[in-house]
Each structure stands twice: as structure tokens, then as C-alpha cells.
Amino acid sequence: MGAPTTTHDAPPPPAPGTVERRRGRPVLPWAVLALWIAVLAVAAPFAGKLGDVQRDNIVDYLPAGADSTQVARVQQDLPGGESTQLVLVYQREGGLTDADRRTARNQAARIAAAHELTAEPRGVPAADGATLMFPVSSTEPGNDEKARAAFVEDVRAQVSGGAGLTVEVGGPSALQTDMEDVFETIDGTLMIATVLVVAVLLVLTYRSPFLWLVPLLVVGAAAVTSRAVVHGLVQGFGLTVTSQSGGIMTVLVFGAGTDYALLLVARYREELRRVPHPYDAMRAALRGCGPAVLASCGTVVAGLLCLLAADLNSARGLGPVGAVGVVCALAAMLTLLPAVLVLLGRRVFWPLIPRHGSEATQRRSLFAVMGGSAGRRPVAVLVAGAALLGALSLGAFNLPGTLKNEDGFTDRPESVSAMQKLAGAFPDRSSQPISVVTPTGTADRALAEARATEGVAAAERGRSAEGWTELSVFAEDAPETAGETATIKALRTALDGAYVGGTSAQQLDLEDTNTRDRIVVVPLVLAAVLIVLVALLRSIVAPLVLIVAVVAVWGAAMGLGGLVFGPLLGFEGFDPSLPLLSFVFLVALGVDYGIFLMHRMREEALAGADPTASALTALRTTGGVIASAGLVLAATFAVLMNLPLVALVEMGFIVAVGVLLDTFLVRTYLVTSASLLLGRAVWWPGRLSRK
After folding, report:
1. DSSP strand E in 189-256: where?
2. Structure pTM?
3. What's the sign of the alpha-carbon dihedral 432, 433, 434, 437?
4. What is the mean pLDDT of each run of 10 residues along the chain (691 residues)?
5. CB 621 within 8 A of CB 4
6. Please, which contacts does 283-288 make with residues 24 or more away whose CB atoms are closer than 8 Å?
7. Which of 226, 473, 600, 603 has the largest count of CB atoms under 10 Å?
């Protein structure tokens, strides 16, 4: 996939510590290496502490100004802090026995004796006589995530069935604990899987027993540095980092960093054949591909920072976290990687060493064939490709609805199983409350109005403090159904001055806020990326071609998601943040390959080549690098598909498929065909358009 290489016999690699003689300033690579060793020595301890400052409280994901966010914040300030709400679900097929009911009462009493509960648990039997639920609420853990998890696990340890009686612990807090258990495994699993995937792809790309290790170690250094920097931002500025944003940052560092390494190493290999000394060859390589790499990083950082305009806390926090990762990857690839490669000399490429004065092995590459077909029939290729992307985009109409909490896992945990049993056994009553906080002075009136609201089955008064009173409202309809959603909206209309929240209200606010964020953030991303492209390519037409291409890729990728998520993978919904985040990633990352291609095309045009020769030469010389980079980036995002959360599986699929479409269809055929048809006009209004 990389640039063409020689295949003649070569001596074995040098012994460790051997450095090829060179002219220039050999002290600079050693100085850069020493600086990075010092940086890593300082960064490593802090990088290991990033997991300790990651926060996965619900307010870290919710919209900043939504009702449900205000409720969660007020509840944290009430006596005992945020309440932990569980439901014990006892069930026997064919009907519960008297012994089953005694067992349930005894276990509920034991839990009440061991913990400080807000009320004595009382059993609520289902109409079919086969299910019994005991709501359990406690403020004992307060706002401490670890204390809440310990409370949930202790309650689970206190209950047991047997002999046909099943017992499961569900409820909002049990669901949150199960979600946090998954998040705790993300960092380690993601890091190991990503390293393995990148290592395999680099070995296949370079076909060298040594070269693949250099970019992998350098990108590892970038990952350590980025984690330390983010830890510092958390401590210094209160930056919110969730397990989700931390995991995505790891993917971005490895994906973007490896892409930059592939481009630099390919250009360095070219220069080693022209220039006798590695130091000088690296300087030439950096001059040649440096602007493209800088612009590539600039588009990603600009796109990610546009997320600061989002109202969704998790999306807004992801922006700077991801930007830090990409900048650290860029810094490592433009400083540490060149230094290490220069110090190792030509023989790091063994057994395919690019010798000075040698010619690259000439062979009919796949990308030359692709370029030839685009050159012969550019109109047909462009129309056919555009029609294919348009047809794929239609699949977006088949996307499932909004993902419910209980459908968010690929492997069903205990909390989800309990919720599903409750929904079947109590179809006329919600098993989880709608939380309302109202000014204490109007609490009695609010309670009366809540009870009188259509769709409400019951309402009761809870804690009071700091001028606020908590109400627990139970809807007639099951959680996260259209009926319960209507009840939440009716409560928000009826209760003046109060905030209506809870688990289902949070899902409603997430969906509404993501719609708002798409309207605000998407134009910002397009404008930011366009500005970077115009500055790099000194053109307006070429950047517009690239922007249209990546937007079409995003639409086609979403369409493929609609054809796969429900029909093939059986997902019941898609995460409401998926359209926005996948758009940011595909536009900001996908345009990278267009930058690599167009920048090389501009180089050829500046050297005097005609438009057709410029386009085909750029495709032939960068096609292998773009393909390798696309495969690496797609594979790193595909690693997300191995995690047990539906939202991350969907994210990994959309971005991976979009990158592959962009790499092998859009860049190779459509952008090349459009450039051939436009000719010099592709550089309008720059001076290249007037030659």
C-alpha cells in the first residue's frame, strides 16, 4: 500500500546504536529525542491518573440548560445528595407462592436494616400474580459514584432466588452502575485492541521487521502525552472528561497519528533516493508534506473545537479532549518520528532499502489503473459515483428510532432484564418515577397540579432543602414510551416554575438538544474546514469540491447504517448524538485524504504539469499512502465495534464505513474525475487557474 520500493538484496540491519554517517546537524535529532524522553518521564505518571478524573455522572452527559440537568443538580444538593433508586423484581413462571412472597419481604427488610432508605420498601404485586416488585430508594451513597456502585452491588448480594424463583435488581441507579462497569473496561480494551490493529496494518504496509515499530512507538508516546495534557486541563481548568471522550481520544491519536506517519515515511522514502544524507532527505520530506499534514491537523482540530458550541455537555467536552489528542499526535509525528528515523538511517527500511540514486520499482499500480479509468471517462465515473452515494444515502430513512436506555447494551445486563420484566408485568404503571423539583413555597400546589395532570398515576412529596422540594411522579405508561413522553411534556406545561427530570426526561432532552446542536455546529464545522482548505490550496473551487465530497460520504455512511443497524444487527435505536459526532469526524478526518491528494496535485501544477497530468500523477503517487492511511483510520474506529455499548458500535461502524468510502471511491474516482473535468478552474481564483 505504501510508496514503491526497491527489492534488491540488502545487508542486514545495523547493530543497535549504529548511526549512519551524515552531514548537516546530527545533534538536532539527538536533542529532539532527549527532549521527548524528558517529556515522557514527566507525563507518564499523570497519564496514568486520567482514569481517576474521568466523570460519568449523568450531568456530565446531559444538555447544559435542560430541565433534566437542573433536576439532577438540585437533587445533588438535597439532604443525602442524589438518590439511588432501585427496583427488586421477583418473578416465578406460573405464579408466585406464599413462600416466594415471604422471601421477598424478608430480603427487603434485611436491606432496610443494613442501609439508610428514604422509605420502608413495600411490595407491589402484578395483576398476573407472577411478578412482585419492591422499589428501594436511598440517599446513603449521595453523589459518590463508587459509593453508589457499592450500594447497588450490596443490594444485589442481599437478594437471591432459587428453585424457579428469579430475582433481579433494576431501576435507574442499577442501569447507571452497569453502564459505569462497561466504561471502566473501555480504556484498557480500547488501547490494547487499537495497538494490535495498528501494528498489524503497519507490518503489512511496510513489509519490514523493524520499520513498523517506529511509528507505533511514536504514536504511543503521543497517546501518553495527550492523556497527561488532558489530566492537566482537568486539574487546572475543570475540563470535563468522560469515559466516552477519553476512549475516542485514544482512537483519534492512533488513527490520525498513524496517518501522518504514513504520509511522512512515504515522502521520506522518495527523498532518500534523491538525497544522499538522511538528515537532508528528512528536511526535504518535511518541506514537501509538512503543509499537508499541518492542514490535515488543522481541519480536525477546527472541526472538533466547533463542538464547544454544542449544548450537550458530553459533546462539548469531547471537542477540546479530541483536539488535544490530535495536536499531540501531530507534534510527535513532526518532531520525534523524524528524529528517530534520521538516527536509525536508511537501514531501518531493511530489507527494502531506498538507496541514493536508485529508481523505485516501476509497476502498474492499482491507483494508476483507477486514475486511467477516471481519465478516460470522467463524466461517466463522476455521475455513476454520485448516483451510488445518493442511493446509499436513502438508507438513512430506515434508521431506527432514538435509542432507549434499556437497548443501549449489546449484551443485556441484569438491570435491563429487570426493566423488561417490569414493563411486561406492569403495563399500566411506570416502574421509575419522573423527578420534579419545585420551589418549596409552591410545593403543595405543584403536587396537586401534578396529580391532576393527564397521564399521571400517582405523585408524592419528597425531600426539601435550599428552597427546593422534590416530587416523585409516576406515569400511567411504561418508561420511555410515547405515553410517558406526553406526560412529561404535560407536566412541564402545567408546573410553572418547576423542573421536570428523571431518566426518561433526560432521554427526551438529549434528543431535543442534539437536534439543536446539529443546526448550530454543522455549519460551523463546514465553515472552519473550508477556511483551512482555502488557506492551504489558495483556491475556492478545490475546497468546495472536497467539502461536497465528504458531506456526500457522511450521507452514504448514515444510509448504510440504516440498512445494517436494525435489519442485520438487531439494534432497537440509534444514539441521538450519532449524526452530529459522525459528521464532525467524517468531515474533519475524511477531508485529510483530499488534502493529501490536492496538495500533491497543486505541487505538480506548480512544477508546470498540465491539469490532467497533475491529477493522475497525484493519484498515482499518493494513492498507496491514502489507501494505507484510510485502512488504518477505518480499522481504529472499527475497534469501537468490539465494545458492549450500542452507541459506540454505531459510531465505529459509521466512521469506519465512511472512511473506506472516502478512501476508495470518493478520493480515487470522484475527486479525480471532478478535477479532470474542471481543469485549471479547480484552482480558481488562484494564479494556477490563469496559466
Report:
1. none
2. 0.80
3. negative
4. 38 42 65 95 91 77 84 80 85 91 92 87 88 88 82 90 88 83 71 81 80 90 95 88 85 87 86 88 88 86 92 88 94 94 88 74 56 72 91 92 80 85 75 86 92 90 87 84 90 92 87 90 92 87 90 94 90 87 87 79 82 80 77 84 86 92 85 86 81 62
5. no
6. 283/24, 285/338, 286/334, 286/338, 288/603
7. 226
